[in-house]
Specification:
The protein is mostly helical. The protein is built from twelve helices and no strands.
């Protein structure tokens, strides 16, 4: 039961964060949204460190994995927010959700065996993305005039790669480092690489309508990760499958709230991606 609750909690949190940042990124710059999300997350994570206590003396390898985990998460969020600024939630979110599949690819490249079923599912995911990208209706109304209709797809794919690297590194380091310390890595990197440069250059934008969306997204990012971590302790397969469905929830939410529609070709591609990601989560677990 805890695996179900943890996976569903993660899916709801990640879907909520996606919907909030899709709106906020169209009000202020994606960099400003990311800066706010990182600061909110930092405020939440720091007290948790007092609960879990100091970490053990980290090895050079653990420091490296923490750096890769945090940097990949920050870069992935920036790319995802940029994609959501231009593209429809129902199209961008499923592509970003392939992060787990790309983490599996990295594991194979690192020497893990590749099962035939995994190879088939990875091929189906690639097919789904190709079908979704074949549409001529990728850029949302109101996007910058210079935006290419392929830009949301490209940015979402790059975000998935960044998240995939982050997930792989997180998996390697979380075996020996407590979750709050792993969460702190991305927030500190975000503080140094995004928040401070924007503040020093006076380019940090924030409006009254965007602020609550950014705060909710920052909270959901942390709570969603913690919920998945709790659920995976009681059943990785169940938690992973349910958490990966954040893309479907976000797509439904965007349709209900803002009437964002996908073409039939996009919908078929997105459906293939969502089902294949869920199946791959089971296979990998």
């Amino acid at each position: 039961m805890l695996a179900v609750l943890g996976g569903l909690g993660a899916a709801v949190c990640f879907a909520t964060a996606t919907l909030c940042t899709s709106r906020a990124s169209r009000m202020v710059s994606p960099q400003s949204v990311l800066a706010g999300v990182m600061l909110v997350g930092l405020v939440i994570v720091v007290p948790l460190l007092a609960v879990v206590g100091p970490s053990h003396r980290l090895s050079d390898e653990e420091w490296g994995w923490l750096l890769l985990s945090g940097a990949g998460n920050v870069l992935g969020l920036l790319l995802a927010y940029s994609a959501l600024r231009l593209g429809k939630v129902g199209l961008v979110a499923p592509i970003v959700s392939t992060e787990g599949a790309l983490a599996a690819v990295l594991a194979v490249l690192a020497g893990e065996p590749l099962a035939a079923s995994t190879a088939v599912l990875l091929a189906l995911i690639a097919l789904g993305i190709a079908l979704a990208a074949a549409s001529r209706d990728d850029v949302v109304p109101g996007a910058p005039a210079a935006a290419s209709r392929r830009a949301p797809i490209v940015l979402a794919v790059l975000a998935a790669f960044a998240f995939g690297g982050s997930l792989y590194a997180t998996g390697r380091v979380s075996e020996s480092v407590a979750v709050p310390w792993v969460l702190l890595s991305a927030r500190l990197i975000g503080l140094l690489a995004v928040v401070l440069p924007l503040a020093l250059r006076r380019r940090w934008q924030m409006t009254r309508p965007a602020l609550p969306l950014v705060v909710v997204a920052g909270v959901c990012e942390v709570v969603g990760f913690a919920s998945f971590a709790l659920g995976s302790q009681h059943g990785i397969a169940v938690a992973a499958v349910l958490a990966s469905q954040f893309a479907a929830l976000a797509g439904v939410g965007a349709f209900v709230l803002w009437r964002e529609r996908l073409t039939r070709l996009q919908l078929s591609g997105v459906t293939i991606v969502v089902i294949s990601v869920a199946a791959l989560s089971v296979a990998q677990a």
